[in-house]
Amino acid sequence: MNFGWLTEKPEAPEATWEDFSYFYHPKYYKVTVSERDHIEKTQVYYNETIIPENEGLFNCDFLPLNFKSSFYIITHQAEVKMPSGKIDKPIIQDNRDGTVSVKYDPKEEGSHELIVKYNGEPVQGSPFKFHVDSITSGYVTAYGPGLTHGVTGEPCNFTISTKGASAAGLTMAVEGPSKVDINYHDNKDGTVSVQYLPTAPGEYHVSVRFGDKHINGSPYVAKVTGEGRKRNQISVGSCSEVTMPGEITDDDLRALNASIQAPSGLEEPCFLKRMPTGNIGISFTPRETGEHMVSVKRMGKHIPNSPFKVTVMEREVGDAKKVKVSGAGLKEGKTHTENVFSVDTRNAGYGGLSVSIEGPSKAEIQCTDKDDGTLNISYKPTEPGYYIVNLKFADHHVEGSPFTVKVTGEGSNRKREKIQRERDAVPVTEIGSKCKLTFKMPGITSFDLAARVTSPSNVTEDAEIQEVEDGLYSVHFIPKELGVHTVSVRYKDMHIPGSPFQFTVGPLHDFGSHLVKAGGSGLERGLVGVANEFNVWTREAGGGSLAISVEGPSKAEIEFKDRKDGSCDVAYKVTEPGEYRVGLKFNDRHIPDSPFKVYISPDAGDAHKLEVQQFPEGSIQADAPYQFMVRKNGAKGELDAKIVAPSGTDDDCFIQTIDSDMTSVRFYPRENGIHAIHVKFNGVHIPGSPFRIKVGKDVADPAAVHASGSGLECVKTGHKADFIINTCNAGVGTLSVAIDGPSKVAMDCTEVEEGYKVRYTPLLPGDHFISVKYNNIHIIGSPFRVSCEGDKMVDEGAQETSTVVVETVQKVAKGGKNTGVVMPAFKSDASLVTSKGMGLKKAFMGKTNTFTISATEAGNNILYVGMYGPKGPCEEFSIKHTGRNNYNVSYMVRDRGQYILIVKWGDEHIPGSPFQIDV
């Protein structure tokens, strides 16, 4: 809808559908794609041989834990804990079909626990609880897996035993994160089989009543996980548009932020954008009727005319109940084909349409606008099974959502291998103790490695790097403060994968999967038949279970080596080329950026013969062409190359043959930051590829970016929250913020003096994870876990991700450009600096005189050295830093007389300074 405050024109007539349907056109769609795996299947749920009775029911190659007359579990260890606390052993029978049966004859009444172990470790879901009554008690009882656990999109089963009583008095209810369809069948033998289908992970309360009274053990708590399931999501933006009065330049637009307050008090950020007419539009989703207040501020102060009023009519509020959906694609589907359904939002007001599809495979979603104002949505799954389709309009489920769709057809025959290892929490590090961080980077020279540590008070010091063994390095430093330190490890002046690292001295402030890091070539690329390696750092996440899975065209051999310091290295080997997914989970939750997509190239062939020559050294400039040479050394085949920018966009390189053995590769970087140049020969990376190169002087440094504010701590639903991202002295780059939580959030990002301010309004309680990346690298602390409390303001559904991306500008410290660069807060003691050498006592004319200065024990500061003689300053003076605050100083004098030499560490003279030297 459009409102105008144009004083020179008469009042505009009421808008018609033709007027505002313009904003439904594809060019105004905001389409986002996100992907999140749910908890993976542990081996206990996987059968190599399909149980015949279940084949028709599930129609897929994996089965949930199945109860018929007994447990079917892949394990050879089980025990039962009785109500008295005693342990009893059940009977275990090997069925010789990939399963075992566990049978137990109970001896006591009450709540029992069945503990099932595989390789000495409890399987997921263990212990399984069940209730035992005496035969003469007359109670109705229930048993089966659906009372304790389940998997989203797969039926959960349990059995109710009425022991001769009539089934007519039975009532059942299942409450949880999603609505469920309950089906039951009277078996005519005193038992009733019950089946329900959960569509979202979480805790479900299963109530079984007989004669209006809960049976023993009811309500049962069933933990439903979304194991091994993939999800895809798109959002089609449709918002109300309000034209803002007054003229605003593009520079002004970047510094403005806007929010809209509804009559109920709910305040949300809204977006400012340039309209086709040239005016500035305010885009928001109306949730209520009545008078709304729009506030537009610059640096925290209202602009002229702000706040101003916007009246929202009833027909403009998005109403999910008025959305019409139709099509066979919401009832059943087929693999490898487009399954289509139609959505009509014409009579439903304004609101964004969100579609997420979750199931055994990540189904590709496409959205097309039909000429009649409706949308056609299609999805293409690659694996058979049950899929859950969440369809929301204006953050509320449309009628019938979530839809459960049974997909049939051929699968893609992807193979999966998984290992799981327990990780112990690392002992707490104290001030003054030696800290160590290790990483594996084979095939590099340690000469090009450098490490620095920044303390919580922003003091930066060099750290020592040692080569433990070939390709394995450790960073050592001794902390002087408690708190979170930043460890930057660079190779050829560029952060290695995983850097910058968070290193907490003292007790951990937070723990969990979001604090696990992983990096290495094995998460970027790989080769068939060789070990593809990467590092995993779990130190900051505390203790827990680390699960590593590799899924792709062939089964992987996975090797794991624990370095016993909170880090480990992983290697996997596969036999077929193609696209693989490497999943890393900590305590059943994916770590940031997992699963990683890795393309495994075929056998290297002749690619190892190629070598790169004349590659540009150091940093280069954007918007200028550069080139390097590739020598084939007799290899026969095709060479191709591309350059990938920090923003993720890629561009082809220009390849020209010089002669039969030499090829020139020319590339043209278009933005600042670290670029990767992929050079392949016959489809296989040549040695060293992808080559990383720094473009621009003020290259974004994620280690120098910090985020803080109440919006990163604890927030409330319906209340705006904000935090500041400080980019002072961090260079220019691409800043991206993503909030992953129970619902979409309205979010905006505006420029402030010290960097950027992010404002968002959460709508559902629960944990939100806020990722802050600078040039595609997580800053320290990211992702931040933020706890949200309060009432539910929209419908629950699957996890949703909201993102905002900003191209940053150069920032300096608070106070503006006049203050210049901010000096670090040095902590040092000049009295601990030592100096020695003949050059401190006597000097010879026309010769090089030398002395050394050692400030290794004196903390960190800047060395000032100056020399003044009878006729003015000394002619030649040279200072060379040799590492760890050790310096070699040399000078040359040309006149006789008395000289004064001053050596300062920071603002203080070192012992002996000023020195008197006779020439």
Automatic annotation (TrEMBL):
The keyword Nucleus does not apply. It is found in: Cytoplasm, Cytoskeleton. Pfam families: Filamin. InterPro entries: Filamin (IPR044801), Filamin/ABP280_repeat-like (IPR017868), Filamin/ABP280_rpt (IPR001298), Ig-like_fold (IPR013783), Ig_E-set (IPR014756). GO terms for biological process: actin cytoskeleton organization. SUPFAM superfamilies: E set domains (SSF81296). This is Filamin-A isoform X11. It comes from Musca domestica. The lineage of its organism: Eukaryota, Metazoa, Ecdysozoa, Arthropoda, Hexapoda. The gene is 101894339.
